[in-house]
Specification:
Blueprint: H1 3-12, E1 20-26, H2 32-40, E2 48-56, E3 61-68, E4 80-83, E5 87-93, H3 101-115, H4 119-125, H5 130-154, H6 177-190, H7 195-204, H8 209-220, H9 226-237, H10 243-251, H11 261-277, H12 286-297, H13 303-311, H14 320-348, H15 363-389, H16 445-459
Antiparallel strand pairs: 1-3, 1-5, 2-3, 4-5
Helix pairs in contact: 6-9, 8-9, 10-11, 11-12, 11-14, 15-16
C-alpha cells in the first residue's frame, strides 16, 4: 500500500500518523485475536488496537490498520509481524517522518571534511550506471502497467448512486439523506478504485443545493478527498445530534409491545449506523453494543429475547446478519407452532348440544338462546311482582295429561288453567303442562321463543329485544 493511501486511510479513521501501522498480506481467515496476539509480541507498539480492514484485490488478502499507544516516529520498527510457526509473518508499513534536511546536510559536510573530499568529488561517484538505468526503466514500465490495470478497473460498469439534492420535501425519484449517505458510505468502502474516481461518482449523484456545497468545498480545498465530501454533506444535511446524543438515544430505544424482535433489531441497527457515521463508535464495537442493547431493551415476555439474554455471554457477539437470521428463524418456528395449536383449541371449546352431538352451533340458535334468557328473567320478575301484590293468590298450573310420561315427584297441576293467563310450559320443547327438568322430548327453541313472546304481550310489559 502506498504512503498516500495509508495517509488517506488514517485521515478517514481520524487516526494520527505517528500511531498508525498497516499490515499487508493478511489472510481474511485470520481473526482479530490472532492479530492482537502477534502485535503484543512487538513491545515498541505498546497497546495495539485493530481499527479497520481493507481487501487487496490483486492478492486476495487484506490490509489491516493498527492503532498503537506509542508514537512510532522515532522508533526502530520491525519489518514484519507475526507468530513464528503459527501465523504470519505480515509486512508492516508506517508513515515515515519527514527528513531533517538541515541536519543531514551538516552531517554530510562534516563527513566530507573528515575524509578530505568535496561535493564535486561526490557528484562524480553518483553518476548512474547502465545497470541503474535499466532498473529505473523496469520500474517505470511496471508503474505504467499498474496504472493501466487501475484504469481498466475504474472504467468498468458500476451501479450508479441514487440522486440527492437536499431539497425539502424530497422530490420523486430521489433519496432522503440518511438512506443516500448510508448507501454511499457502504459503496465507497467496496469500490476498488482511486479516490478521484470515487469523488467523480459522488458528484454525479448530486444536484441542487448538495452539488453547490461540494463545489464550494472544491474551490476552498482542491485536495479534498471523498471522505471530505461526505463530511461536508453530513454537516449540511445530516442530523444535528452529536454522537454522544445519538448514543444516549440508542441506549433508550426499547422494544414496543406487540413488536417483533426482528423489527426491533432493524430499528437499533439503523440508529447504530448513524452513530458510526458520526464517529461515536468503532466498527469493532458495533456487534457488542447491539447485543447489549437487545438484552437490555427487549420485552421480558419475549421468549426469543429471553434465550438471547441467557446465552449471549457464552459466545462472541454475532454480527447483524447472523443475529437477524437467528431471530427470524425462531420467529417463524414459533409462528408455525401457534398455527398448529389454534385449530385444535378451537375444536376443543366448540359447544355441542345434547340431542345432536356432532351438530355445529348456529348463530340464529345462539341469538334465540340469548333472547330466551332475557325473557326468563322478565317472567321471574313478573311472577315475583304478582305474588307480592296478591299473596293469597296462587299461580294456576296446568293439569298433567295422563298420557304424557312424567316423573313421580312432579308437582300436581290445577285444573282451572286459562289460556289468557300466564301458565306453566316447558322451556325445552315449548309444550304446556310440565317443566324443563321433567321434559324428555327434543329441544325446540323456536316454539319456546314464540310462547314467551305471546306471554309477554298478554302481560302488557312487552318490549322489543335488540
Amino acid at each position: 500500500m502506498e504512503a498516500v493511501e495509508i495517509e488517506a486511510w488514517c485521515k478517514k479513521k481520524q487516526l494520527a500518523y505517528g500511531h498508525a501501522v498497516v499490515l499487508s498480506d493478511v489472510d481474511p481467515d485470520v481473526t482479530d485475536a490472532v492479530l492482537l496476539s502477534a502485535l503484543s509480541q512487538v513491545k515498541v507498539f505498546g497497546k495495539s488496537e485493530i481499527v479497520d480492514r481493507c481487501l487487496d484485490v490483486a492478492s486476495k488478502t487484506q490490509f489491516v490498520l493498527i492503532k498503537t499507544s506509542t508514537d512510532l516516529t522515532n522508533q526502530t520498527l520491525p519489518g514484519v509481524v507475526g507468530l513464528p510457526g503459527e501465523a504470519g509473518p505480515w509486512p508492516a508499513h508506517v508513515l515515515t517522518a519527514p527528513a531533517d534536511n538541515d541536519g543531514f546536510q551538516s552531517k554530510l559536510m562534516l563527513f566530507l571534511e573528515t575524509e578530505g573530499k568535496t561535493l564535486t568529488d561526490v557528484s562524480g561517484l553518483l553518476q548512474p550506471s547502465p545497470l541503474d538505468v535499466n532498473t529505473a526503466l523496469i520500474h517505470a514500465i511496471s508503474s505504467l502497467v499498474d496504472k493501466c490495470n487501475t484504469t481498466s478497473v475504474d472504467s468498468q460498469s458500476y451501479r450508479k448512486l441514487r440522486m440527492f439534492s437536499g431539497v425539502k420535501p424530497t422530490p420523486n425519484g430521489e433519496e432522503e439523506y440518511d438512506a443516500w449517505a448510508e448507501q454511499t458510505t457502504h459503496l465507497l468502502e467496496e469500490w476498488q478504485c482511486s479516490d478521484n474516481i470515487k469523488k467523480q461518482r459522488i458528484v454525479e449523484s448530486l444536484k441542487g443545493p448538495a452539488a453547490d456545497i461540494v463545489r464550494f468545498l472544491r474551490v476552498q480545498k482542491p485536495t479534498a478527498t471523498s471522505y471530505d465530501y461526505m463530511q461536508v454533506l453530513e454537516t449540511a444535511f445530516g442530523t444535528t445530534e452529536s454522537a454522544s446524543d445519538l448514543l444516549v438515544k440508542f441506549r433508550h430505544t426499547y422494544q414496543n409491545v406487540g413488536e417483533k424482535l426482528s423489527t426491533y433489531l432493524l430499528r437499533l441497527d439503523k440508529l447504530l449506523h448513524c452513530i458510526f457515521r458520526k464517529g461515536g463508535v468503532a466498527l469493532s464495537d458495533m456487534n457488542r453494543l447491539r447485543m447489549e442493547q437487545v438484552v437490555r431493551g427487549a420485552l421480558q415476555q419475549d421468549m426469543i429475547a429471553l434465550r438471547l439474554c441467557m446465552t449471549h455471554k457464552l459466545r462472541e457477539p454475532p454480527s447483524f446478519s447472523e443475529l437477524l437470521k437467528e431471530v427470524r428463524e425462531e420467529e417463524d418456528m414459533l409462528q408455525s407452532r401457534n398455527n398448529l395449536k389454534n385449530p385444535v383449541m378451537s375444536q376443543s371449546v366448540t359447544p355441542v348440544s345434547k340431542s345432536a352431538p356432532e351438530q355445529e352451533v348456529d348463530p340464529e340458535v345462539a341469538k334465540l338462546k340469548k333472547e330466551i334468557s332475557v325473557m326468563k328473567a322478565e317472567m321471574l320478575s313478573l311472577k315475583a311482582a304478582a305474588v307480592a301484590s296478591h299473596p293469597d293468590t296462587q299461580i294456576p298450573q296446568l293439569e298433567i295429561p295422563a298420557k304424557t310420561p312424567y316423573k313421580k315427584n312432579a308437582t300436581p297441576q290445577r285444573s282451572g288453567y286459562q289460556e289468557d293467563k300466564p301458565g306453566i310450559f316447558c322451556y325445552r320443547c315449548g309444550e304446556d303442562g310440565h317443566f324443563k327438568r321433567e321434559c324428555e322430548g327434543e329441544e325446540n327453541l323456536l316454539k319456546v321463543n314464540k310462547h314467551l313472546i305471546k306471554l309477554t304481550k298478554k302481560s302488557g310489559n312487552y318490549r322489543e329485544i335488540q
